[in-house]
C-alpha cells in the first residue's frame, strides 16, 4: 500500500455519521437546483465522514479522487511556502466544497485541507461525479460558476496585496464579512488572527493592533474573541 493510500485509509477511519447526507447535498450550490428525485439519487452516493478539529481532509501530493462538501464545521485550504509558512487560500463553511479537480483530470492536490473545528464532510468519489456530470450537465455549469467566482476573488486579493495598505485590506475584509450576513452588524472571524494574517498578507500582531485602533476610532466594537460588531461601515471603508 502506498503512503497516499495509507493516508486516505487513516483519514477515513474517522467517526461516520449517516444522518446529514440530505442536508449536505441540499446545501451545496452545485446540487441544490436539482429536482427532489435527482437529489435523492445523489444522496445514495454520498459518504458522510466526521473529522476532529485539526485533522487533514487531504494533504499536498495526495491523489485528487473525491469531491468534499462541508456539511458542518469549517475547513481551511492552504499552501506551504518554501520556508514552511502557511499561505491561506480560502476557508470553507457549510455548503462549500473542495476537490473539484477530480471532475476533470487525474491530478494531485497542490495544497492542504485542514479542519478549523470539528467538521462533517460529505464525500463523493470521482467515478460517481463523472457519471453525475454526464447525466445532469447543469451541475457542470454550477461548478464553472464557482471557478469563476474563486478566480475573481483571487485576482481581487492579488491587487489588494500590491496596492492597498494593511489597514485598508483589513477594513475591506470586514466589509465583505458584513455582506455575508447583511441582517446583522455582528460578524465572527472564521479563523484565528494567524490564519487571517496569512490570508491578508500581514502579521497577527498587525491584525490585533489594527482592530484595536478601529475600535478606538468607533468603527467596530469587540464583543468577544473573534466576534466584532460593525458600528460605522462607511467610516471603515474610508480607512
From TrEMBL:
> Which positions fall inside the HTH crp-type domain?
164-234
Keyword list (alphabetical) reads: Activator, DNA-binding, Transcription, Transcription regulation
Q: InterPro entries of this UniProt entry? A: cNMP-bd_dom, cNMP-bd_dom_sf, Env_Response_Regulators, HTH_CRP, RmlC-like_jellyroll, WH-like_DNA-bd_sf, WH_DNA-bd_sf
**One family name in Pfam for this protein:** cNMP_binding
Q: Where is the Cyclic nucleotide-binding domain?
A: 30-150
**CDD domains recorded:** CAP_ED, HTH_CRP
Named from the GO MF annotations, one term is:
DNA binding
UniProt-listed PROSITE patterns: CNMP_BINDING_3 (PS50042), HTH_CRP_2 (PS51063)
Which superkingdom?
Answer: Bacteria
What GO cellular component term, any one, is given? cytosol
Keyword set includes Cell inner membrane: no
Name of the featured protein: Crp/Fnr family transcriptional regulator
Tell me which species this is from: Mesobacillus subterraneus
Amino acid at each position: 500500500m502506498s503512503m497516499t493510500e495509507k493516508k486516505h485509509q487513516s483519514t477515513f477511519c474517522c467517526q461516520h455519521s449517516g444522518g446529514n447526507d440530505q442536508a449536505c447535498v441540499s446545501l451545496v450550490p452545485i446540487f441544490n437546483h436539482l429536482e427532489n428525485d435527482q437529489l435523492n439519487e445523489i444522496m445514495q452516493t454520498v459518504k458522510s465522514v466526521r473529522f476532529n478539529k485539526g485533522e487533514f481532509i487531504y494533504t499536498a501530493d495526495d491523489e485528487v479522487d473525491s469531491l468534499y462538501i462541508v456539511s458542518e464545521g469549517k475547513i481551511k485550504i492552504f499552501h506551504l511556502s518554501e520556508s514552511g509558512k502557511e499561505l491561506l487560500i480560502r476557508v470553507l463553511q457549510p455548503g462549500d466544497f473542495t476537490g473539484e479537480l477530480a471532475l476533470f483530470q487525474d491530478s494531485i492536490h497542490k495544497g492542504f485541507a485542514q479542519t478549523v473545528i470539528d467538521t462533517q464532510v460529505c464525500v463523493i468519489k470521482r467515478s460517481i461525479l463523472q457519471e453525475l456530470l454526464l447525466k445532469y450537465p447543469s451541475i457542470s455549469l454550477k461548478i464553472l460558476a464557482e471557478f469563476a467566482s474563486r478566480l475573481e476573488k483571487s485576482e481581487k486579493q492579488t491587487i489588494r496585496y500590491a496596492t492597498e495598505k494593511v489597514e485598508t485590506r483589513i477594513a475591506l475584509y470586514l466589509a465583505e464579512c458584513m455582506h455575508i450576513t447583511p441582517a446583522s452588524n455582528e460578524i465572527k472571524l472564521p479563523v484565528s488572527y494567524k490564519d487571517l494574517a496569512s490570508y491578508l498578507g500581514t502579521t497577527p500582531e498587525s491584525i490585533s493592533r489594527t482592530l484595536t485602533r478601529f475600535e478606538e476610532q468607533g468603527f467596530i466594537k469587540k464583543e468577544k474573541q473573534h466576534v466584532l460588531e460593525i458600528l460605522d461601515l462607511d467610516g471603515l471603508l474610508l480607512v
